[in-house]
Amino acid sequence: MNLTVNGKPATIGDKDTLSITELLAELKVETPEYVTVELNGDILERESFATTQVKDGDAVEFLYFMGGGR
Amino acid sequence: MFSEEQIKRYSRHIILKEVGGKGQQKLLGGKVMIIGAGGLGSPIALYLAAAGVGTIGIADADLVELSNLQRQIAHQTKDIGVPKVLSAREKMEAMNPDVRVNTYHEWISAANILNIIEGYDFVIDGTDNFAAKFLINDACVLAGKPYSHGGILHFVGQTLTFIPGQSACYRCIFPTPPPKDAIPTCSQAGVLGVLPGVIGMIQATEALKYLLGMGELLASRLLIYDALAMTFRTVQVRRNAHCPICGENPTITELKDELDALNVCDLGQK
Fold first, then answer.
1. Chain A residues within 8 A of B153 when measuring between CB atoms
2. Alpha-carbon torsion B3, B5, B10, B16, what sign?
3. pLDDT of residue B262
4. CB of B218 within 8 A of CB of B235?
5. Which of B45, B44, B40, B54 is nearest to B9 (CA)?
6. A31 and B126 in contact by Cβ < 8 A?
7. In this complex, is the C-beta atom of B172 within 8 Å of any C-beta atom belonging to chain A?
8. Could B130 and A65 be called an inter-chain contact, meaning their C-beta atoms sit closer than 8 Å?
9. Is B226 helix (H, G, I), strand (E, B) or coil?
10. Residue B189 above 90 pLDDT?
11. How far is B214 from chain A (nearest CA, A)?
12. The domain spanning residue B167 has which CATH number?
């Protein structure tokens, strides 16, 4: 499956589709419980990670908390 | 109109045809509130003062510490132990006597923030903890005040500009704060000294553009800067219909302090 992940092309696994939860695990995303996921421009609800599927051609952004400033 | 000295001082603005004398007058009449006088707040305060933003508020309860000086360029070795807001004001006034600096030597809270930001045209988040970042967002959404969010960690920073009623707010992206100490935010995490300078300068640029009414703001665009990869990326973010404060059915209708989001180290190491 070919995705755009954080603005870069990425080939992920050998399946046609993955849930967001599976994708987070596949990509070994750090602190997955705190990441915000945007799929094709829409921010996903955390509760829908297990049921939302990504497929070939999708664009996924992982957005992280950044709390520093001083 | 301008004095002779002002014509010289602001000549590089005035000769920009997009700014001109009219634009400089807008800056001199502009009022910007900076919350936090540290890594982000220092360069923001100095550059906005240099640019001739006429009224600048700056809020911070902290005192200057030696470990701040690696990045907080408004403060100098002689200022250790001095309230950051007073140290910053001294440098801003020395740089540009046209600027009126209002200092707020206190932490922002649900009880005082609306009073503090009232009367300012634009607010800038230069704080270092999620409790403050969410509070600033909520106060600006509820008060209909444009503001610039900034956050940094290690070698990466991000910034977003909020325009009331038009663009996505911080909670559209991050609906609730992370539990305390889940995400490093403070002295334990470390930060490359120049990083807040880069992000702070972008925030200051947004404030100037807002006051001048020109250019494209970072509205509904989260800019992510990675100092190691040396990349700038903007991610389009839409307004979120489920946003707890600016969505269709908001669950947050009044300000409250997100005490769970206060990091222990934000308090304990003062």
1. 64, 66-68
2. positive
3. 61
4. no
5. B54
6. no
7. yes
8. yes
9. strand
10. no
11. 26
12. 3.40.50.720
Q: Which domain holds residue B263?
A: 4-268
Q: Minimal Cα–Cα distance from B246 to chain A, Å?
A: 14
Q: Is B183 on the interface with A (CB under 8 A)?
A: yes
More confident residue, B258 or B3: B3
Query: How far apart (Å, rounded) are the C-alpha atoms in residues B51 and B37?
Result: 18
Amino acid at A12: I
Tokens 């930001």 identify what position?
B117
Q: Which CATH superfamily is domain A2-63 in?
A: Beta-grasp domain (3.10.20.30)
Structure tokens at A9: 């092309």
Provide the token pair at B116.
Answer: 């503090």
Nearest to B33 by CA among B22, B41, B25: B41
The single-letter code of the amino acid at B212 is: L
In this prediction, residues B12-24 reach a mean pLDDT of 98
CB contact under 8 A, B240 and A43: yes
The average pLDDT across B160-174 equals 97
The two beta strands, B221-226 and B156-162, are: antiparallel
> Domain ranges in chain A?
2-63
Structure confidence at residue B90 (pLDDT): 98
Q: Which residue among B36, B184, B235 sits closest to A70, beta carbon to beta carbon? A: B36
Question: What would the mean pLDDT of B41-59 be, rounded to a whole number?
Answer: 98
Does residue B114 register a pLDDT over 90? yes
Considering only alpha carbons, which residue of chain A is nearest residue B65?
Answer: A70
Domain count, chain B: 1
Contact check, Cβ <8 Å, A66/B151: yes
Q: In this predicted complex, what is the ipTM?
A: 0.91
Which residue in A31, A45, A70 is closest to B40 by CB distance? A70
Note whether B69 contacts A: Cβ–Cβ < 8 A: no
